[in-house]
Amino acid sequence: MSEHSAQIGVFGGSGFYSLMDSFKEIKVETPYGPPSDMIAIGTIGDKRVAFLPRHGKLHQYPPHVIPYRANIYAMKQLGVTRIIGPNCVGSLQAHIKPGDFVVCDQFIDRTSGRKDTFYDGPVATHISSAEPYCAKLRELAVEIGRKQNITIHDGGATVVIQGPRFSSRAESQWFTSMGWATVNMTQYPECILALEQEICYVNIALITDYDVGVVADGGAEAVSSAEVIKVLQSNNERVKSLILEMIMHIPDTRDCPCAHALEFARMG
Hints:
This protein is of the alpha/beta class and 268 residues long. It has a single domain (8-260), classed as Rossmann fold, CATH 3.40.50.1580. It has helices spanning 68-77, 135-147, 169-177, 187-196, 212-215, 225-249, and strands at 8-12, 24-26, 39-44, 47-53, 82-91, 101-103, 106-110, 152-154, 157-161, 182-184, 200-210. The two termini are 35 Å apart.
């Protein structure tokens, strides 16, 4: 394996801009433009890991203009077959508390205008998004999180809003009434673009706040950027610890459907 290749990719989210102490930064070019920033490549255990802050190191890309296709394609070019995608999210349910983690298993797309496929023709390609997150990586994340005494919720649907604004009270009440677990701005199309490249993808969601719909049921203040930053700062080390331990235990071989996602996706 060359020094410019990796097996595992990690996207940093808001407030999470570094993963490894020793690394080499490289510039990667893609047919979809440059990724969010230079990519840091290093070794964790016996795994080569590529780390990219999805918003850029200076948080220069708001959620609706992140170059999602370039980010995923850059990882693919490096040889990445698994991606861990942590992000900070709002809780839509009272029992999912700030500081908890959620390993999502479904998404609801409420974004608009994002470049959300690699396949604009000439061959029609319809990827199945019935199971958008890798079941094997999800299982590993939950197992390790619980061993680390993290309050971690196994499964839950995340609704992805366009951003950069937070939800209105009415929107949030609707999301909560539907039983969805969390709300965020970056999971789509990141997770589905990874699947289009037959890359396993897992989301680890850190709850930073209660969304405003929970307020209507009493007991929580509406989301604010200041509160989000406060929770992020106090939990970043737990996020890193979970990811580092996951990387150490990800098997070399894949026996999940993600590796064959395109097998029945093509029309003709």
